Amino acid sequence: MDALIAPLLNGSAQGALLLLAALGLSLTFGQMGVINMAHGEFLMIGAFAAYLVQQVITASNLSIPVALPVAFVVAGLFGLVLEVTIIRRMYRRPLDTLLVTVGVGLILQQAALQIFPSQGVPVEKPRWLDGQLTVLGYNWPLRQLFTILLATACVAALSAWLKYTSFGRRIRATVHNRDLAETSGISTRTIDRLTFFVGSGLAGVAGVAASLIGGTNSQMGAQYIIPAFLVVAAGGIGQLKGTIVAAWAVGVALAFFAYWTTGSLAQVLAFILVIVFLQVRPQGLFTVRTRSLA
Amino acid sequence: MSNTSKRMRALTATGAIVTVALVLAGCGARAGDDAAAAGSSAAASCVDTSGDTVKLGFLNSLTGGMAISEKTVSNVLHMAADEINADGGILGKKIEYVQEDGATDWPTFAEKTEKLLTQDCVAAIFGGWTSSSRKAVKPVVEKLNGLFFYPVQYEGLESSPNIYYTGATTNQQIIPAMDFLAAKGVKTLFLAGSDYVFPRTANAIIKLYAAKLGIKIVGEEYVPLDKDDWTSQVAKIAAAKPDFIFNTINGSSNVGFIKAYYDAGLTPAKTPIISVSIAEEEAPAMGHEVTGNFASWNYFQSLETDTNPEFIKSWKAYPNSSGVTSDPMEAAYISMYLYKALVEAAGSFDVDAVNAAAKAKPITFDAPEGKVTLDGENHHISKPGHIGRINADNQFDIVWASDKFIEPDPYLEGYDWFPADIRKQLTDAAG
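The joint structure predicted for all components is written out below.
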């Protein structure tokens, strides 16, 4: 039983972290078409924000819940500044955006290296995440359950926001048809900024989750950026549900491959799977249905 | 409307290209690829020591992934050079250093080595961390007959007339750790490592020695160096219930491993870890979750030797200091003083004269880890073996020490359980 339960549960948690990292991208890349390579560094900013919050609120039971909204706002503000200063000049020039944001990412990494101890900083896990939950004989670390709950909460909040608020409706209108949205009086500039703020903020939340799983240091963002882009592409660009399914599938595939083979081979196999899938179905899992012929 | 799906497709394509390009960039840099190509014909040395200074090169990754470790080595090299200068220099000449950034890119290490030797005309180069960086530098220093001082424990099976190794080779770190485990009565061992040459070679040696010691290897897991999530592998370790875990993981991935270990409810009381890459620098990033586990090194900040208190004091006072001393940085500190001793014994900065002096009589240095002696043949140094246990301050309590300084044996020729064919196979595989 362990042979099925452990990889399934661990894979779901791995998928949840991937989803958290990809959620913001599904907005900025999926909805706005901006290839932001500094997204991983926004994640890093979120993790360092969690560390800084812990310097002020030393009880880790309290500091992590406080760190989540703080990381969201801090990473979001970094995103906003990036959008206002650089990215807005580059809409419809995806390759230029790509190159510029790679540079921004490197600058942020080096800044973190200069400011914080080079080996990274500790982010303490709340005491209430100590321990395991026994599921069919497997002792499942509670922290994994936390990652899944956090991802679920973020998805629910984001979907509700997109669906029920006027901002959400305006974002969707802008994505579906920017010109028409503008004609009907929507300020697409404001919408772009807000979307970028929320997308970057979500990276910050992912950073807090990542700080509880791996190291918090200047290099941490790099390991999430490629899988996150792959997940968004595999899910179908602009499709939240696609991102969710793809992240979960990649996470579970990674865990099963890791269980059957080795950790290194699992990375290769899981991403070969994604690439083959994209060959067969380049539009991803789900597509935006339009009446257009092209 | 028709633009929408076209744009989507373009985006998908762009995304795919970006992804492929980055993956290639990530793993494309192969050690020493253009090292040989970059070399000019073996020119006569352009080192000029006629003035009152001598130029030395420092080659460390100050940017990129390895900067988290190599920055400290660079800083301690500066400190050692400053100390020597304050003390009158080497052969009366002040050290003038040229700092280069290896940028965590192995071909860059090769290029910068050539630049330091042919354009800056340095008398010796200090630095490197990863084996890949050393293997990129090696063909260049050999071709141009330069000197390279390498300060990090590594997988052994190498010696070069142009390289001096001041970190441990396997018989000074891995083998003492195994002796410690055998003394503790460990029966089963799980091997966890990062996926590159050092852990693979170390584990090959561990498996051979474990067979000799009667320790059973109950599992072996590798995760790429740049991945932090160890949850799946730790689940396998928990299921295997080993007496001890031998950890050859390197870098930030260690933090993820320790967190996953702690999350799974594994404890040092039941399933302790012995590590070879967690030192005073790395432990603080793991907080209290690493407390109680073990590490095998030659130097610990907590060592009580005549020279260690002074070393710790100088480092703490040095600008940009990390505040704690550790094995690799101590080995870097040794490398600078070892070079000074070599040059003074040779009475010259000339590479051949230095190498001849190394062979002529034993060169020693009163290092913070104790009095080390250079082996003039294989260019490694003798070292004491120590096992430390991590305490609540993320410092190490010494729990075991080798009875004497261990002579370096990079090819493990003095160990009958290490067969010649495996030696050849591993040496060839390491390139």
